[in-house]
Amino acid sequence: MKRFIAIFIAAMFVVPLFAQEVEPAEEPETEEVPEAPEVPEAPEVPVEKEVVKKEDTVKITKKMEVVEAPEGTKITLGENEVLIIEDNGDTVRVKLGSKGISIVEGEDGTAINIIEMEEEEDDDDQSVTTRKKKKKFKPHFAGFELGLNNYLTPDFSMSLPSDEIFMDLNTGRSWNFNLNILEYGIGLGTDKVGVVTGLGFEWTNYVFDSQNSIRKDDSGMIVEYVPEQAGNIIKSKLNMTYITAPLLLEFQIPAGKKRIHLSGGVIGGVKIASNTKIKYEIGGEKSKEKAKGDYNMAPLRYGVTARIGYRALNFYANYYLTPLFSENGGPELYPFSIGLSLIPF
Predict the structure, then answer these.
(1) Which site from 139, 181, 194, 208 is most exposed, i.e. has the minimal number of CB atoms within 10 Å?
(2) Of 20-34, 57-71, 289-303, which range is least confident?
(3) 3-state SS, residue 13
């Protein structure tokens, strides 16, 4: 029944194209045989039937041919072919050019769907099969990320020496915000491995753990700054804004209907703003003090990044190989951040 429906649908598409081209068969002309008394009349030659069947091929006129094969039924009408493939007992697929018709019989009835198909020749260049269009590699970078900041000393310690203790942070309040607005992926011959790049913005807040801030001294070095409102400071922090761009190698591992994606590579940044801000309260009144400046921050920086995720759960980690401050501009500290991707695009 399914195959009959499939042939009927295919015929509706292509048979009208040739209906007007089929001419009625002409009766063969016969020559009169001269009478000869000694020779009996020649028997009439039977007219060739319009339908001829050879093995698994049925030829209907000169325009239409039906071939039955183990892999399915092929109907040829002129120069056009309609290939009907029966995948199993419940499914029939009909190919017509780049389009396909899928007929599936299930418990809820018969479903007819239009699908995209394309042709592919085998190694022997003798058979043609049909399949769905190849899936494209989908990168995972764009989205909104939220994490925590800190930095390490050259020996990978978070414990600062006594002369740099003024840079000690309150990690729980030092937030990192990333807004990755663009992503671009190139599959490496498959939809599971590819190269990823993009563009984003990174906002970094370093909240100092003590009643202090930072500033440049007369020699241009970053040193501790204790404002007059010390003792009443609610929050003192250093803010930075960077434009970032990654170059990642991403792998995707099938896990059920979804995939686990892992990526790693390098990330670079260009500083576009930096400032310090102090919030304090005196006599029940809240005030703030904000000072813009470069604070000897490295204008360009680069580092390594790693990402892993599954469905809505995604983690990222960045570690910068460029120090927070330029050479001889302040303590040698290397920033890092760890967090979650909350809203993937």
Answers:
(1) 181
(2) 20-34
(3) helix
295: left (phi over 0), alpha (psi -120 to 50) or beta: left
Q: What would the pLDDT profile of 34-55 be if each residue is shown by its tens digit?
A: 554 555 555 555 544 444 444 4
Helices (H) and strands (E) in the chain, counts: 1, 21
DSSP string, 58-82: EEETTTEEEEEETTEEEEEETTEEE
Q: Is the pLDDT of residue 240 over 80?
A: yes
H or E element at residue 4:
helix 2-19
> pTM of the full predicted structure?
0.63
Tokens of 136: 């494209």
Q: Which residues, 6+ apart, have CB-to-CB distance to 96 below 8 Å?
A: 10, 13, 14, 82
DSSP annotation string for 88-122: ETTEEEEEETTEEEEEEEETTEEEEEEEE-EEEE-
Virtual CA dihedral for 49, 50, 54, 55, nearest 10 degrees?
Answer: -100
Place of tokens 């005196």: 282
